[in-house]
Specification:
Farnesyl Diphosphate Synthase, two-stranded antiparallel sheet, globular, homodimer, 297 residues, 70% helix
Chain lengths: 297, 297
């Protein structure tokens, strides 16, 4: 089935609603000023809002108008922002630049960065608690479980990437898949399944969205690896060739650039086939898949 | 009403069940070894398990047998362990010793300590999700909200304590109350109300447990301040006089030792009056109140 009857998906307009929802959520909390400022610095920084957009498009794929996803969109962006802040710390990736601006520990100090990251992680669960479309079913419990699993896997991925500790039996390709499907893929997956769940997806649609998210997440990270090798630091907005410096496992390092591109192509086709099965309501997800394929930064 | 018909509350036996539940929960997760080891090092370290015991006793106060609280007991101990690990980091309190052993960043490195703390924070929400005594009511949503609020307030308290940023209009006593009711009080409060909620407390009991927890939490922290001035490092199991070194606000520093002791007495009487209103089922909470009053470490 093709998306001839696609539904509206204006990324700028949706981003604007997401940013408004994030600000409005923080406004309700009355955080101490020394916490509120660093949280806003990180969360509201200019960004692509990929994960919130995925949540919105997944809600549409499940038959919603997209706005059902707003609380979970806020939640996944909070988790994403927390992970960037902690990953940038001197003890981890030790990055000074993020999204073209000083990283939070450079801007506000390391103590503020640790605590603001902690707060954003906790606040994500608070944001999800705003979704109760069906108080007599356990939609809320499902969303919390999906967010827990995504966050736990994301942290596990960062542990593998930073500290290693792999099973001796794994090949380099298996190791890099384990890192990527967890470190980046898990939160992309959570964004999609939570968006669909917030819009009361039926099980077949949820399964298709889940499969799509796995393809997309791995593809997205392989592209990120390639951009690190081939990209322009001014466009990407952060220091590049870090992976090479640190001898980290990446797809191009393990499999070469050409083979990495082939895998991207396969993942793209697999993802499309799931969207075809969902039908016209998947047009937002299709658009995001294309955006994430063709990005140069 | 006096507690002549008190119910059994064997702290060693309950601690043993709590420790077993924490280990069993971790066993289900299959964490990477480089994450699993630091999480177990912190979470399963010998400790008083004050917050889990409070959750258990609060469940009894609400008419349960206590065991209803096990998942929330695990959750609050995970939050407590996360907060200790991050608070001990060089950028925050920079402590080398905790519970008589090297702090996690001394034992496993700073990256592992940051990531294990993050994981424990996220896992707390996963632990709560094991409580679904009444799938058709929103007990689960209530517990998540209580845990969110407790965790957020705890982090806010640490921000006030570490980074300041108080409203100019506050007195030193108001500042120290703000620090303590958030930094220590909020998680003690969450432990109590979550324990009672897990055992399906009625609203009057929940209100009494909540009020008791506020009295207890503040009292506990003032005692901690006093131990820092007057305690024996060998018994307390961590470096002392840190507060004095860092010019931190504490009750003895702001109000003097005698006045601090008077406030402790008032809080103790207030707490007891709430337990009297709950009746014999509050005997576990009464025992914990006494334990926490008479502690020397």
């Amino acid at each position: 089935m093709t998306s001839t009857n696609s539904i509206p998906f204006d990324t700028d307009q949706i981003r604007s609603q997401i940013d408004h929802a994030m600000g409005a959520f923080l406004d309700t909390l009355n955080l101490p000023s020394k916490l509120d400022e660093p949280v806003r610095y990180s969360l509201l920084a200019p960004g692509k809002r990929i994960r919130p957009l995925l949540a919105w498009a997944s809600a549409q794929a499940a038959g919603g108008d997209g706005s059902e996803s707003l609380p979970v969109a806020v939640a996944v962006e909070l988790i994403h922002a927390f992970s960037l802040v902690h990953d940038d710390l001197p003890a981890l990736d030790d990055d000074d630049l993020r999204r073209g601006r000083p990283t939070l520990h450079k801007h506000a100090g390391e103590a503020a960065a640790i605590l603001a990251g902690d707060a954003m992680l906790a606040l994500a669960f608070e944001a999800v608690s705003k979704v109760r479309p069906h108080p007599t079913t356990d939609t809320h419990a499902k969303l919390i479980t999906q967010l827990c699993q995504g966050t736990r896997a994301m942290i596990a991925g960062q542990v593998y990437d930073t500290l290693g500790g792999f099973d001796d039996s794994l090949s380099d390709q298996q190791k890099i898949e384990l890192i990527h499907t967890n470190k980046t893929g898990a939160l992309i997956h959570a964004a999609c399944v939570m968006g669909a769940t917030a819009a009361s997806a039926d099980q077949p649609t949820l399964d298709l969205v889940s499969g799509f998210a796995c393809d997309l997440g791995l593809k997205f990270q392989i592209i990120d690896d390639l951009l690190d090798v081939q990209g322009d630091p001014k466009l990407v907005g952060k220091a590049l060739r870090k992976d090479d410096d640190a001898n980290k496992l990446t797809y191009p390092a393990v499999l070469g650039i050409e083979r990495s591109k082939e895998i991207i192509g396969t993942l793209h086709r697999d993802a499309l086939s799931k969207l075809d099965q969902i039908g016209p309501a998947s047009s937002g997800l299709r658009l995001l898949l294309d955006l994430m394929t063709n990005r140069s930064h």
